[in-house]
Amino acid sequence: MGFEYDVCIIGTGRVGLPLGLSFMDVGLKATGVDVDPALREAVCGGQMPFHEPGYDELVARGTFQIHGSPEICARSKAVVVTVGTPLHTHIETDLRQIQSVLEGLAPHLRPGQLLCLRSTVAPGTTTFVRKWIERHTDLRVGDTLGLAFCPERIAEGKAREELRTLPQIVGTEDDLSAELAVALFAPLAPEILPTDYVSAELVKLFNNIARYVHFALANQFALVADTFGANIHQIRHMANHKYPRSYIAGPGLTAGTCLRKDFGMINEWSPYPDMLLSAWKMNEYIPAFLVQHLGKRTELHDKVVAILGYTFKMDTDDTRDSLAPKLYRYVQRQLPEAIRVSDHHLPATIVDDRNGELRNWDVDEALNGADCVFIATNHTGYNEALRRLAERQPDTWVADIWNVTRADLMFYKAGALLDA
User: Fold this and answer.
1) Under 8 Å between Cβ of 96 and 103
2) Nearest to 205 by CA among 269, 263, 260
3) Could you tell me which of 319, 315, 371, 378 has the C-alpha nearest to residue 340?
4) Which of 92-96, 136-140, 238-242, 340-344 shows the lowest per-residue confidence on average (mean pLDDT)?
5) Fewer beta carbons below 10 Å: N end or C end of the chain?
6) Which residues span the domain enclosing 77?
7) 183 and 219 co-located in one domain
8) Within its chain, how far is the Cα of 146 from the centroid?
9) Which of 195, 220, 245 is the last residue of a domain?
10) What SS3 state is found at 368?
């Protein structure tokens, strides 16, 4: 008996749904499985459940359907797993979501299928999956079942472009798995780079950790510059200008599910302090740095404070692992009169497990009468909002680590923008 679908995506969130839709866009017959009923209802009804440019029309066709049960996987030639792979509270990989998927999937796996892991995983996870399958089913990887780790390396907001332009790493350890994995991704990716399980796992981790460490260095430079009364934005422009041997990134609140946890998947196996742990500490310190250093310039107690941005990344609606909620709590410790949060990518009420339900203010209303402003996310539109603020309230203090106004100022009174 043949297969009805070319590929079934288990976990159709911000990684899985764009992948499934892109497979469909290149002519494969794709379907999905997800435990979230609201997500299933939205996609099956032709609506994107989150912001990801370029996919609204594909979803609106209604041909990509998401199911609540893994039974549909038995009808698919390939099964791609894109569920979350978090860390435990301590520096320890959490395999519960992957193991839960395997338990639900095992009765529906068939000879001749490919099982492909795609979420970021710790080194050794694909080998764990191979051993789990061979203990709990009659299938044997390389003989009756293909198994691969094929990491996603897209940037949120650029999925449709990058799925078609980035080389695809394919980690396998036998000929059958390699053949099936290459056949699956060849219609989508411009180039296939074959390797083994652990090398593929490390490629993804190294890509993310390198960015995380790079941004940590940029944040430390910002801290050092401000401590000496210097302007980090001006310094980095001069340091980068026509200099061929290094590039200093801009500072910012560095977080998100793709960066903040990945260092732990390697540090889990090392007891020694290293630059990865130092990078984590530096990036996590930035909310406190912003509150402390603005507090050296103006009092936050009994003042009206506006926080612009609550997501972890520019122009997305994704709040996962954002540092903006942490910034909110540090501001809260100063006992201001009020804290107004504004993020035009989020609903009217922002529901936060730790900070509660927050009113999402219109940006101009949030800024009206504010004594201090923190730019937590570099969303499009904040430049214009701050320049309107400068006209109305030139004495309002602003902490703009992102340099959204391109005025090369980090801590300043809004009126400084009138001359910038």
Assistant:
1) no
2) 263
3) 371
4) 92-96
5) N
6) 5-195
7) no
8) 29
9) 195
10) coil
Domain count, the chain: 2
Q: Specify the pTM.
A: 0.89
Tens digit of each residue's pLDDT (9 = 90 or more) over 75-105 = 999 999 998 877 777 778 888 889 999 999 9
Q: Does residue 297 carry a pLDDT above 70?
A: yes
Whether residue 123 is found in the same domain as residue 257: no
- Domain harbouring 257, CATH code: 3.40.50.720
Task: Looking at the structure, tell me whether residues 281 and 380 fall in a common domain.
Answer: yes
Query: Does some domain include residue 90?
Result: yes
> Strands 76-81, 192-195: parallel, antiparallel or unpaired by DSSP?
unpaired
Kindly state whether residue 111 falls inside one of the protein's structural domains.
Answer: yes
With the CA atoms of 90, 96, 99 and 105 taken in that order, what torsion angle do they form, in degrees rounded to the nearest 10? -150
* pLDDT, tens digit, 9 for 90 and up, residues 184-226: 999 999 999 999 999 999 999 999 999 999 999 999 999 999 9
Residue 317 and residue 382 in one domain: yes
